[in-house]
Amino acid sequence: MIMYNMPNSIILYPCYLIRISMNVRFILTLFSLLSVIQISNAQTKKVFAHYMVCNRPGRGIEGYKQDIRDAQAMGIDGFALNSGDWSQNYKDNAKLIFQAALELGTDFKFFMSPDGCCGMPPNEILEMFTTYVKHPNYFTYNNRPFLSGWLTGTKPQYRDFFKKVILDTLKKQGYNVYFVPFMYPNGYPSTPGYDKYVEDYNDVWKGFMEGYFYFGGPGLPEYAPPSLLNSGESCAKVFHDNKLTYMAPVTPYYWGEKQTGDGRRYFEFHGGEGIENQWKSIIEKQKPEWIELVTWNDWGEGTYFSPLDDINKYWPYAGHKQLGFYKTHKGYADLTKYYITWYKSGIQPAITEDNIYFFYRTQPKDTLASKDPKGPVKKQIGDVKDEIFVTTILKSKAELKVITGGVTKTYPVEAGVHHIRVPFNVGSQYFEIKRNGKQIIYVQGEDIVSDFIEYNFNLYSGSASSVPKSKNTK
Predict the structure, then answer these.
(1) What DSSP string runs through 130-172?
(2) 385 pLDDT exceeds 50?
(3) Which residues have C-beta within 8 Å of that of residue 141, sequence separation ≥ 6?
(4) What are the φ and ψ backbone dihedral angles of 125, each rounded to 5 degrees?
């Protein structure tokens, strides 16, 4: 029998070689299978954005196409179409956005999310859904049309209304709906704890829905109360423990500028720090089937991710017709793309270029407005200071320079993702990244002012990269 000399003086017979060869093929096949499973799992993870249908982007159908392009550039798969009623304005806007997606031909998806704010009658909810459920851009899950909702309470009557009047009616019409709503827990807490979710699940939600969407929004992206992180993790556990699906929120920050009865409440998210805290909780602990960014275009509550340069240029909002009140959120959009990629792939993205993101109010928090009929922002929640929040994502260590109101501040920054808080001064704002004495990035932000008519706690956000990119928002 022939013997073979192998490396390291290992001597094997041919039968063993055949067995090793078979084992190697098996292992390679297994790795290939695992790779397919990993890709499949990644493909099932979807990111949507809460889209206020009442807030049209302007420019006709081209405005909707630009919204879709901007969303897709971030890695967003579709919009949850939030509608407070089904009047002609809503019908016209919905028609345009579905048409825009169809003409773009990119398989961008939508699902309906009726809003319980305004007493919409059941026939309107049914019409809203059935009008578009067979549209090629309507989102389905496991071959079932997806339906969500922002519902105002957790009581048997709300459950029975949706179950008997909406879901059962649709089932009789041949639509086996996959229902994943948000319902405010009893007592309307914005950041409910685990026991509250268990109580309401057992009392009302059990056997009623396929999953749950935690809207988030008002709260803080930290583990101190009112904690969006604790609430999201508790909600995920309750629904996953009961073998149901879960859709998690991500919010840039929250300012209820119209909520005069609640002190025009502002929650401090610290720019990119709040974004990272939410995504890490989602990726490491919540592990949701879907994400819904809260929101794409809710200008009135300051929770939008749309990177439009100035909303009022395209859609003159009745409450604030002056240009510049609704700040660009390009920095939020660009930074969120990094975490969407991480969530979908399950792997932290490699850093191949240098990027900077910055977030700040353009007014000092305690300066008085000369004339604001809504009054001051009395309820400021969290560690609210006059600061610029800078996030850097760098290939290797560098130097960050921030010039705020003529005052220069310099910080050494290591490779990777880092967050820096910089006390701000009124005046011009500049941001620079240098490495080995060479300027890598230089960008100017919006001025901070001390003379203003109305209070504005909307955050301005910008970004810049060492690799120039084509501008996709016009």
Answers:
(1) HHHTTSTTB-EETTEEEE--EES--SHHHHHIIIIIIIHHHHH
(2) yes
(3) 178
(4) -60, -45
pLDDT at 323: 82
The answer to whether residues 239 and 246 touch, using CB atoms and an 8 Å cutoff, is: yes
Give Cα 223 distance to the centre of its chain: 19
DSSP-derived secondary structure letter, 390? E
Chain segment 432-468, per-residue pLDDT in tens:
999 999 999 999 999 999 999 999 999 999 999 998 7
Q: Is 468 exposed, middle or buried (0-12, 13-18, 19+ CB in 10 A)?
A: exposed
Q: Cα–Cα–Cα angle for 427, 432, 437, nearest 5°?
A: 140
- In this prediction, residue 19 carries a pLDDT of 41
CA 183 to chain centre: 19
147 has a pLDDT exceeding 70: yes
Q: What is the mean pLDDT of the chain?
A: 89
Token pair of 319 as six digits: 């409450």
What is the token pair recorded at 51?
A: 């889209």
- Specify the higher pLDDT residue, 432 or 313: 432
With a CB cutoff of 8 Å and minimum separation 6, the contacts of 317 are 299, 311, 325, 326
Place of tokens 């629904």: 239
Contact indicator for 75, 340 with CB cutoff of 8 Å: yes
Percent of the chain, pLDDT > 90? 78
Give the type of residue at 202: N
Tell me how far CA of residue 120 lies from CA of 146, 172, 318, in angstroms. Answer: 19, 21, 23
Query: Before 7, cis peptide (omega within 30)?
Result: no
- What number is the average pLDDT over the span 59-67? 93
Identify the DSSP state of 381: E
Q: Look at residue 186 and tell me whether its pLDDT is greater than 90.
A: no
Structure token pair of residue 64: 């909707």
CA atoms within 13 A on the CB side of 260: 6
Report whether 81 contacts 112 (CB < 8 A): yes
In sequence order, the 6+-apart residues with CB closer than 8 A to the CB of 76 are 47, 48, 49, 293, 340
Determine phi and psi for 389, rounding to 5 degrees.
Answer: -105, 115
